[in-house]
Design brief:
Oligomer: single chain
Radius of gyration: 16 Å
Order of helices and strands: HHHHHHH
Structural class: mainly alpha
Number of helices: 7
Strand content: under 5%
Largest sheet: none
Amino acid sequence: MAYTLRSQMRAVVLAVAFFAIFIRLVSALNAWQLGQNTEIQSYAFCVVFPASLLLLFAFMGTARTKEGMLMRFGSMLQLLLILCLPSFALYLALGFPVVFFAVEIFCTRIPRKLAQPIERAILA
């Protein structure tokens, strides 16, 4: 059996990512006009790189296991947080193992009555 993300969930994540990228670009351009070059100089590494990884995860295809797809979705959310919260980006990037730990706890310790509706909302 192969698992994939629901198209609605993928669309929401990509729409929020596009909005965050746009806001970060406008902010970087405004800072550049004021003479502060750091935001525009770091834009490629701080915005474009996480956004390209997010796109890669969003269109990667199917996964063999439910846990693998949930880890991919958790990584997408983590990258989205990195895009939206630039002041916490380093801490969020270092926190990727927490995503995998949270998915493992979700799959093994949460009762099925609670886990199944969440899985159905995310996975197709």
